[in-house]
Automatic annotation (TrEMBL):
InterPro entries: TRAP_TAXI (IPR011852). It comes from the Bacteria. Residues 1-25 form the signal peptide. It comes from Vreelandella subglaciescola. Pfam families: NMT1_3. This is TRAP transporter solute receptor, TAXI family. CDD domains: PBP2_TAXI_TRAP_like_2 (cd13570). The keyword Zinc does not apply. Keywords: Signal. The keyword Signal applies.
Length: 326
């Protein structure tokens, strides 16, 4: 009996070693490190993306980190070209990119970009100093100096066109959100038109240092924008900023994380698994991640899902149209 027990133990030990070796072999084609394309410092993308990169690096014991970029449009190009493994983007720029309409590469269909997981909605909101006298969109004077974020970002791509459609004439400015916040406070800008996940760090910082107005869209403005742009109505909860006494009505666009379609399936599977199964950890990175949950994969109808991500969703009961899997 002792011999049988010993033999069984040896067989179990051998099986464990084989399983460990197999698991190690599965990682043989994984990258040695990875980069996540985020956006400018002071914006939600940078906080969310850098924190998520550090989390995944720790979970998978691989070197990784966030990179400051121009935002969603540039991230699509970086991932497509293999200069970043992962990135964060918005559905509007994503649609343009896969259809060859990216302003960074006109005519180039970016077909090496796959969706991984839903992030959050990006509200389009407007902030001014309280002493500016600007309390509504119609109050914005002709020629107002408006900061739209980094060039070619989601904000810079869509917000100027939205305001033009609403009859606003302006002097267009670009820059990182932190820098634009400083310019607003110093009187070098009249308005900042933000498209970023909430709470926007630059706005929260402004609130601490000075009095601001956070401006909403009225009913007619909402209707006009919904008819002309790929956005949805959105309410910024009053609890988001100390400045707000009630929810603020704006419009929004969904954000998704993206991966190079040629990344190993097992690698992207593990990244998706860790992200989708640890929402508490994700919310500790940025509270907008409360919507970083698998139920929200339905908001992507633009990008094909990476096979590794799709495998995790299907194993856990979330259906994806087979035509939407790379």
């Amino acid at each position: 009996m002792r011999t049988t027990t010993k033999t069984t133990a040896l067989l179990l030990a051998g099986s464990a070693l084989l399983a460990a070796a197999s698991a190690q072999a599965d990682k043989s084609d994984w990258p040695e490190n990875f980069t996540v394309g985020t956006a400018s410092q002071g914006g939600t993308y940078y906080v969310y993306g850098s924190g998520w990169a550090n989390f995944i690096a720790d979970e998978l014991d691989i070197s990784g980190g966030g990179e400051v970029t121009g935002g969603p449009t540039q991230n699509l190009a970086l991932v497509h070209n293999g200069n970043a493994a992962f990135g964060l983007t918005t559905m509007g720029p994503a649609s343009d990119a896969i259809n060859g309409k990216s302003p960074l590469a006109p005519g180039v269909k970016m077909d090496n970009v796959c969706a991984m997981f839903p992030m959050y909605e990006t509200p389009f909101s407007i902030t001014t100093l309280a002493d500016s006298g600007i309390e509504s969109i119609s109050d914005i004077p002709d020629g107002a100096r408006i900061g739209f974020g980094p060039a070619a970002s989601t904000s810079d791509t869509y917000f100027p066109e939205i305001l033009k459609t609403l009859g606003v004439e302006f002097d267009r400015r670009n820059g990182g959100w932190t820098d634009l916040g400083s310019q607003l406070q110093d009187g070098l800008l009249d308005v900042i038109a933000f498209a970023a996940g909430i709470p926007i760090p630059a706005v929260s910082q402004l609130e601490v240092q000075t009095d601001v107005n956070i401006i909403e869209f009225n009913e007619d403005e909402i209707k006009t924008v919904l008819e002309n742009f790929p956005v949805a109505e959105f309410m910024i909860p009053a609890s988001t900023y100390s400045t707000l006494d009630e929810d603020s009505r704006v419009v929004s666009m969904w954000n998704f994380s993206i991966a190079g379609c040629d990344l190993p399936e097992d690698f992207v599977y593990e990244v998706t698994k860790r992200t989708m199964e640890n929402n508490d950890r994700m919310r500790s990175i940025h509270r907008s991640a409360e919507t970083t949950i698998p139920e929200n994969i339905s908001h992507n109808t633009v990008l094909p899902f990476h096979p590794g991500a799709a495998r995790w969703y299907e194993e856990n009961g979330y259906e994806i149209d087979p035509e939407l899997i790379h």
